[in-house]
Amino acid sequence: MEDNKIAVGLDIGTTKIVAMIGKYNEYDKLEILGLGKSKSLGVHRGVVNNITQTIQSIQQAVQDAETSSGMKISDVIVGIAGQHIRSLQHSDYITRKDSDIVIDELDIENLCNQVHKLVMLPGEEIIHVLPQDFKVDGQNEITEPIGMYGGRLEANFHVVVGQVTSIRNIGRCIKSSGLTLSGITLEPLASANAVLGIEEKEAGVALIDIGGGTTDLAIFKDGIIRHTAVIPFGGNVITEDIKEGCSIIEKQAELLKIKFGSAWPGENKDNEIVSIPGLRGREPKEITLKNLSKIIHARVIEIVEQVYLEIKNYGHEDQKKKLIAGIVLTGGGAQLKHLKQLVEYITGMDTRVGFPNEHMAGDSDSEVTSPMYATAVGLVLNGLENTKINEVQEEEINEELESLTNEEIPAPKRKGFFDKWVENLKDFLDNAE
Asked: Which of 160, 271, 294, 369 would bridge with 357, disulfide CB 3.0–4.6 Å?
């Protein structure tokens, strides 16, 4: 197996860091070759706040993945989330010099580059510029303007913005762990890749990824990403509440949540009790499951209502923007019992729990298809797609070179803005040594 056909996704989360190695099998389905995970110690709400600990955790996860796959990992695709991410809608246009020539990729690149010049708040940087739909000479709703004639090319963009320092810190951790950064992707976009079907994205769907420190939201309609948001609450605040409410230590609170937790208090009888051993010979504590689920219920409602507010901000109540496929829940927090019912009750939208098996080989290990690995799977898919695109472009260039005489050498294929952006980040890190 050639090494360039594999991709490695590194999901730097608040509770865990996952390194996942994957490749496409002969049926173009994703096959996971190795998986490593470690407890994430230096990350708070999706943002690195302790470089040394994060580097150790990354190295641990990568080592596990290498051991389980028997491969050496050199470059990784990383997901970025965190409370500093925000997104905005923006429209922009360019006037073309010659409207007798058809619109090509270069025009679209010029238009996107113009969006990159937007003035952001101090310390912010544009991460993604995603064109949504185009207008050519006032003609609306064009999804693919390449090959058309026109003088004025306009587009609506979905622009994702993040904090420069947070992004650089992640780059720094990767570099210091002895790895190369081959790409950065917004985590909700990666998770969406892994769990959503094409029909859902067409019909309109909200993907809610409930992680340890943050809850990510990505909204799709007509197959295009329409809205993204990161809410700075996740499974950790639920554990925190149980810890405070029951006066127990965090480890016990986490276990209670996973084993007995439910988002719907009506499910538990009054006499269901769990006994928790006391610390160092103290008396054991008795906790009723009803109280436990009341604590969880209160916090989950808060998280879901915040997400629902974002869905409303996108305009879900407008008939044209209605999300017909409803909500898909993923991430570790999606495994909470009766969460689906609670989300349906609060939002009135159809809800399902999303497992990242959309593009996976049929015989994949059930552990890997757990919702908590959605982001990692999405990052691997992303990495494999990039390799594919690069290969196709290289082949095209080689074919062109062979078919051309010496006088006409083709212009190199354009790079995505994202590739350029990652290159800039790499340069910055190299210079910062």
From this structure: 369
